[in-house]
What does this fold into?
Amino acid sequence: MKRFWDPGISRTILFVLGVFTFVVACYRTLAIGKMDGLYNNYWLFMLSFGLVIGLRYLRQQDKIKAAEAEAARKAALPAAAKKPKKKK
It folds into this structure.
């Protein structure tokens, strides 16, 4: 069965939404001006940072899973190499 959702696309979408909301927040802050602009668009900045933190969390989880898989692979190699050879 064909996959509808590529696993890497969710991270790409998180990154794009994080950057987009940050750019929109910056633009709106500069358009309104002064501290009122920052106060009015604070929620957009927080949404942007939350998306980036979520992306970093997913990447860290991938690194942990890759390290565990590598450790399991390395642990399996010596066990296969220690098998005694049959003597004739």
The first helix runs from residue 9 to 32.
